[in-house]
């Protein structure tokens, strides 16, 4: 029998609560749902709100089928908000918006990673943040990503911009920058310019091109997620990994002090303590007073 629960007046059917989703720790679907309801909800919802959400679904865990979807899944309740997101191949396309706790728990029951663009639904292709996805090519790790992040922080500061970090929840590190709204194309062009500069300044460490032959031992400074069509793992989302790793905000002291990959590996059961200690380290991304303009002549 499928359990029925009520969340803020919405009735939800929750399924397969005993299914193990993260085999290395034996973490069940019920425990995943508890993470979102009891730990992550107050932190993740502001980062999801008013943004069209894409889902990476992993209903049988990371060893099963993984599939990425932007369209509202079949059976989406009529009380879950959707927003038009025109695409060249589908001008009438819509995507889910996770605006409240019932919608969060409905989506979490599907077993998903949450991914969001750098713009809000009311202003498609107008970015209010910039992102760098620092992706290490083995044997490089997140330790090398931290070195590149420190260089980027200083370079962004020279342009009057403040950067905030989070783990990808996989191998790398994300840097996010609050911006006064600007066209995604301009943000992408500026991010690419800084990625090229990073490669020039750190030729043994940083790389702005994705070419696989160049990747070993270096950090790919991926600027492409600033494109209006791209998304990035939402802060506090669980990732489809053998352990329940989280895309977790981190302090600059933690980035500066990182000497081994395990120092910046955070799991679902780490997050309550971190939120109690730090609050939302990415809160400045949500504060319009923290936003700064792109430098003049970014294109």
Give a written overview of the molecule:
Helix content is 26%, strand content 22%. It contains six helices and 16 strands. It has helices at residues 29-48, 101-109, 142-158, 184-201, 252-257, 271-278, and strands at residues 4-7, 10-13, 20-22, 27-28, 54-57, 67-69, 82-84, 94-96, 112-116, 126-136, 164-167, 173-183, 206-207, 219-222, 232-233, 249-250. It has a six-stranded mixed sheet. A four-stranded antiparallel sheet has the order 6-5-9-15, covered by helices on one side. The protein has a two-stranded antiparallel sheet with strand order 1-2. Helix 1 (29-48) crosses helix 2 (101-109). The protein is globular, with a radius of gyration of 19 Å. The N and C termini lie far apart (58 Å). The model has no long low-confidence stretch (mean pLDDT 95).
List the main descriptive attributes of the protein structure presented here.
single chain; 299 residues; alpha+beta; 6-stranded mixed beta sheet; 4-stranded antiparallel beta sheet
Instruction: Please give the order of strands in the largest beta sheet.
Output: 13-14-10-12-11-16
Overall pLDDT: 95
Low-pLDDT windows of residues: none
Sheet with the most strands, sense and barrel status: 6 strands, mixed
